[in-house]
Design brief:
Elements lengths: L1 H23 L18 E4 L12 H17 L3 E2 L6 E17 L5 E16 L7 E12 L4 H23 L5
Parallel strand pairs: 1-2, 1-3
Antiparallel strand pairs: 3-4, 4-5
Helix pairs in contact: 2-3
Length: about 180
């Protein structure tokens, strides 16, 4: 009987200590998009991203530009304008290439890699030390038995999303 009473008190004290500890000390992270001071930055100009790569897939430009614009709209409070913006993003596609991967014992590639590279110019008209002129790349592998034309749309959508994430984090996300 005394043992049960001691055990009950011990459990109660442990619960109280845990409750007090979680209220006294807590860590909070906030991942809600951009790391911008909205009292300073109110507008953004998103330029076009022409394809300057040797190989060309025209739909990539529209897919990427739409994804970038939508992502910025969803994750910031910046208003998109055509000129005189606080921030500007523009660039060009500089690479669109295929390369063999995972070569089998008979010297044939079992996978092919599609790599897309985009050069981005990020201009902060309020603080030029935040300016960026950088290239970003992303790739996807696909089975070599598949034709590029059959998988190209899906691969380019996936690559565009990853490129937008990388670009947003390096510019507006300020990671």
């Amino acid at each position: 009987m005394a043992w049960n009473k001691f055990l009950s008190i011990r459990i109660l004290l442990t619960a109280l200590l845990i409750a007090a500890g979680t209220q006294a000390c807590s860590i909070s992270y906030k991942f809600n998009g951009a790391a911008l001071d909205y009292s300073v930055y109110k507008t953004i100009q998103i330029g076009s991203f022409p394809i300057r790569a040797a190989l060309v897939y025209p739909q990539l430009q529209q897919t990427f530009e739409t994804e970038l614009s939508d992502y910025i709209t969803r994750n910031t409070r910046l208003k998109s304008v055509d000129s005189g913006a606080d921030l500007q993003i523009e660039g060009e596609f500089t690479g669109y290439s295929l390369s063999p991967q995972a070569v089998t014992e008979d010297a044939y590639a079992s996978k092919t890699r599609l790599t897309v590279t985009v050069r981005v110019k990020y201009i902060d008209n309020k603080n030029e030390k935040n300016n960026i002129d950088q290239s970003f790349s992303s790739y996807r592998d696909f089975d070599s038995s598949e034709m590029l034309t059959d998988v190209q749309d899906e691969l380019c959508q996936q690559i565009a999303k990853e490129l937008v994430d990388l670009i947003f984090n390096a510019t507006l996300g300020n990671w």
